[in-house]
Design a protein that fits this description.
Blueprint lengths: L2 H26 L6 H10 L6 H20 L7 H12 L7 H37 L1 H14 L6 E2 L5 E6 L13 E10 L4 E4 H4 L3 E4 L5 H6 L8 E6 L20 E10 L15
Antiparallel strand pairs: 1-2, 2-6, 3-4, 3-5, 3-7, 6-7
């Protein structure tokens, strides 16, 4: 959210408060026994030449009210906002420019924090709804992981990644760090065996930074030495998560990879990047 947007919101708050104050004064003079008629009279009392200004104030009021409700902003001193607005109009602000900027920075931080909370709540809700819809797929993935874990030679990392050594590299061969680039051949399938991506089928090794791919690869390939080939089964949380990769991998997908580590930080011409990069 830019500083202009925040200034617009602050101005809108002031407009809302001033408008509310005027409306309250008018309401005290009206006949309380006929509220509907009084409200209609108030609308008709707006002169044609004042309607643009009135509409602008109403627009800003709606804008700021919606945002305050959306982000649950509480504790703003309405009288101080109105006073600051009125003093500024008269060029008689009680705070100097530095103080105003300091206080405005605090307001900006509150808005940003509220926006972040709203985003997190919305994402959590979206994930819960998606998880409910994908319940059969999640159960199938869990069952596959449980069965695979029983197979001979399968090991499980603390984070839940399952792997089996197909071929081990030479004794003393180097292992990559998360900050290294690696060159690999890989073959990726869903739990039903359907291929979704394969450098082997393309006959073109892939090269990429190990910290720029899915978490399951970043962790799993650090177990391997050059020349090794491992078979990985990666839970959805360490693969493409609940959102998946649109058009290629559904959310909550448990994935299988057979990976051969060819080189670490190769100096020769770089092949295409792996298709397993994160979104």
């Amino acid at each position: 959210m830019g500083i202009w947007d925040l200034k617009k919101q602050l101005l809108a708050i002031s407009a809302v408060l001033l408008l509310a104050s005027c409306q309250q004064a008018k309401q005290e003079d009206k006949d309380s026994t006929d509220a509907a008629k009084s409200e209609q009279s108030a609308k008709e009392s707006v002169k044609d030449e004042d309607k643009i200004g009135y509409a602008l104030g109403a627009k800003m009021a709606t804008f700021i009210r919606n945002d305050l409700e959306k982000y649950k902003m509480q504790g703003i001193n309405k009288e101080s906002v109105a006073a600051g607005f009125e003093d500024a109009l008269q060029n008689q602000s009680k705070l100097d420019q530095k103080e105003i900027e300091q206080q405005f920075a605090q307001f900006q931080q509150k808005i940003q924090a509220a926006h972040l909370v709203a985003q997190q709540e919305a994402e959590a809700q979206a994930m819960a709804e998606a998880k409910e819809k994908a319940k059969p797929e999640i159960e199938a993935g869990d069952a596959f992981l449980a069965e695979n874990a029983k197979k001979e030679g399968v090991k499980i990392t603390e984070s839940g990644i399952q792997y089996r050594v197909v071929k081990e590299g030479k004794i003393g061969a180097a292992k990559p760090a998360a900050t290294d680039r690696v060159r690999v051949h890989y073959h990726g399938t869903f739990i039903d065996g359907k291929v979704f991506d394969s450098s082997v089928e393309r006959d073109q090794p892939a090269e990429f930074a190990l910290n720029q791919v899915i978490a399951g690869w970043t962790e799993g390939l650090q177990l391997m030495s050059v020349g090794s080939k491992y078979h990985f089964v990666i839970p959805w949380e360490k693969a493409y998560g609940w959102q998946g990769r649109p058009g290629a991998i559904p959310g909550f997908s448990v994935l299988q990879f057979e990976v051969e580590l060819l080189d670490i930080n190769p100096s020769s011409e770089k092949p295409k990047k792996a298709e397993t990069k994160t979104n």
